[in-house]
Design brief:
The structure is a single chain. By secondary structure, the protein is α+β, with helices and mostly antiparallel strands. It has three domains: 78 residues; 96 residues, 2-Layer Sandwich (Beta-Lactamase); 200 residues, 2-Layer Sandwich (Heat Shock Protein 90). The protein is rod-shaped, with a radius of gyration of 60 Å. The model has no long low-confidence stretch (mean pLDDT 81).
Length: 412
Amino acid sequence: MTRTPAPEGSESAGEAHVESIEAELRLIKGRLKLTIEKLDFTKRELKSTQEEYQAINFKLQSSNEELETSKEELQTVNAELDHRVRDLGRANSDLQNLLESTQIATVFLDHDLRVRSFTPAATDIFHLLETDVGRPIDHLGSRVSYPELSEDVRKVLTKLGTVEREVRTREGSQYIARVHPYRSVDNFIAGAVLTFLDVTGTVRAETALRESDSRLRVLLAELQHRVRNTLAVVKSITARTALTSGSVEEMAAHLAGRLDAFARVQSAVTRNPDAGVRLKGMIADELLAHAAHEGDQLTIDGPDLALNAKAAESISLALHELTTNAVKHGALTNSGKIHVAWRLNGDGTALHFDWTEKNGHPIATAPSREGFGMELLTRILPHDLDAKTSVSFEPQGLRFSMELPLDHVVQK
């Protein structure tokens, strides 16, 4: 192939083109260098940023650890707080139950005498409802007469003392009212506390005690009187037994029996002083002490009567003497019979009493020597009981009868 010679001037154009390319390459190299420098700078910045991020991450981990620690501490605090809340709830419940169990009427007031709270028992004193919290105590109706209440509360709030009064309801119940300051835990006076203690039972008990001490003084005087009378009777029995006894042995035997009879009636009298001593029971006891039972040998007939102490003492001694005589000399020495009867007269003012022995040893005349028994039947009974008595020694056996005023012998 034949080359066609380049036109003149084409070599210059090539050189210019090469120079242009070289200039572009230099520009590109410059830009590349600048880009590389920028890239290095960016790498350095990224490395610095990475280090900062690592430091931040470390701090963040440290903060997380501190947060976890704080969270655990918060959980501990919450648990402790929850425990204290439960303790406080129990304490409040215990306090509420305590106030209700004591049944002490209590009202809590603020400085302006407004009701802050109250116990259930306080509704017995004031006409209180739950909606009355915040109302002045003066605006509430009261069941007790306590006109000085507001004055006492203000006095307590001013002088920080305690005021105590006795107050009474219209129904007659009595209370001890106390007003004292309401102190907070830091000793701040936050109001006043009213308490009303029901002392109605105590006052009534004290009154009853005073009256009892007076029904006791009378009883003591009566007891002293009865002891003096008892000693006088014992002294009289001993003296009269000594005068009518032929020997010490006889005196001892008679005295023991008479004192036993007297002791039996004293036991009956003191067992129930107000009820008296039943005449039929006293007769049966005396004869039973000598093995005489009501039945074939003994009949007892008469209305139910309760004897007073004096009549019982005298009649029991008479019954003892009659029974002892029947055992030694009369119907109870063999198969004889004893009939004891009493009745009231027509108008009910006198008592007729009969002791009749039959089929005993026949006795034609009275004993030659009058002993204590005869003296008791014929002189002591008439003197002590204003009685009319008679003793007869009939062939069939001894008969004793007496008539005495009913109001002298019957327990009233």
